[in-house]
């Protein structure tokens, strides 16, 4: 071979590698085969294929599937993508009828269908994982409806909560995520198959039939839109990103809570790792990784937005770049949800540390101000400044506001020199938490109500 010839071959090889998607879109083999079987059945119903041809195609496709699943199938760059690879192998196996399968369709509606099927299937399985995680947060919440934990704003002690209530905040986030996947599923539950290249087809096809065979609600309404649309992929990327953001937020809390300074929780040994140099260490690698992976998932969303933004109608090869990010994000969210679920289930809650931490930072100070407003009809701002004096008094005595004696409180500010001694009860931390009985508030009573609502939802 001449040098020129070798160079030409090398270039051809590079070009194949560049152009092909088979090495990643093989992930869509089962959806591709499912779509082709439905298409062939429809063509047969419409009299485009004979019964024998259809049967031979369907059996052939099932054999291809079997070959892929048993690892016998050779994925070769020569066939560019999963659609060509399956069709070629089918024709190798069954001969002439294989060549009729592509009647009335294009790879453009084929890939749109395969990918949408994949996204729909994954939405369902991710929803299940989300529901399981909600269930876990609710279980932990149920055990800790009276466990005090400092509620924070600006990461500074603010007001006392119960730990169950804190867990339910996450249950709410992941429930919203569940609903987000659900509504995307509904919105995108339409079949692009039969849109053909961009404008429909002159063949007598029945798109309702393929839509229903594939489990879609109906066919999509506009052929050109259907082959160009990747909103469904963007939606799952957004939904996954939002869930990862929630995962990342609880991960951040787990890292903080398990630090020496907090010691609110201890992660089960299985989910904590050791240091290669510092033998005393137990590191929260797992929540750190969950937090870190969130970045890549956001990247996948922005990537696809960027791919799509300048595309003229209809199909463009740029769109082939839609898949890897989605596959990656789906895998990431699946494993992240499973792992987080285990971490939450197995973490050890250090009730004493949480409750002791509540004695720092005058968490019940607002209760004094609220008391003065409620019992003495004082304007809130006036009550606020009086409370500030009581806090200053507590600070000077090196005490928490909940530890002051009635004399100490009375001596803090002249206006409250005769304040009733029941105020001591109001400043008690547990009473302070339980005082917040407003709908959605932290009191044990409200928390228990909220748990009931979740339990009903989980049973559905
Ligand atoms: N591999 C292609 C993709 O992922 C399939 C569609 C190809 N269609 C075309 N007209 N080149 O988008």
SSE topology:
Layout: H1 3-19, H2 22-25, H3 29-45, H4 51-69, H5 82-94, H6 107-143, E1 148-153, E2 156-162, H7 163-187, E3 190-191, H8 207-213, E4 218-219, H9 223-228, H10 231-257, E5 265-266, H11 285-308, H12 323-346, E6 348-349, H13 351-357, H14 365-376, H15 380-396, H16 406-412, H17 423-427, H18 429-435, H19 444-459
Parallel strand pairs: 3-4
Antiparallel strand pairs: 1-2, 5-6
Helix pairs in contact: 3-4, 3-6, 3-8, 4-5, 6-7, 6-12, 6-19, 7-10, 7-19, 10-11, 10-12, 11-12, 14-15
Bound molecules: arginine (ARG).
Residues 21, 25, 81, 107-108, 111, 315, 317, 319-320 line the site of arginine (ARG).
Q: How many beta-strand elements? A: 6
- Which molecules other than protein and nucleic acid are bound? arginine
Low confidence ranges: none
- Determine the number of helices (DSSP H or I, runs of at least 4 residues): 19
Largest sheet: 2 strands, antiparallel
Which structural class best describes the helix and strand composition? mainly alpha
Q: How far apart, in Å, are the first and last alpha carbons? A: 69 Å
Question: Quick summary of this structure?
Answer:
The chain has 460 residues and is mostly helical. The protein has helices at residues 3-19, 22-25, 29-45, 51-69, 82-94, 107-143, 163-187, 207-213, 223-228, 231-257, 285-308, 323-346, 351-357, 365-376, 380-396, 406-412, 423-427, 429-435, 444-459, and strands spanning 148-153, 156-162, 190-191, 218-219, 265-266, 348-349. The N and C termini lie far apart (69 Å).
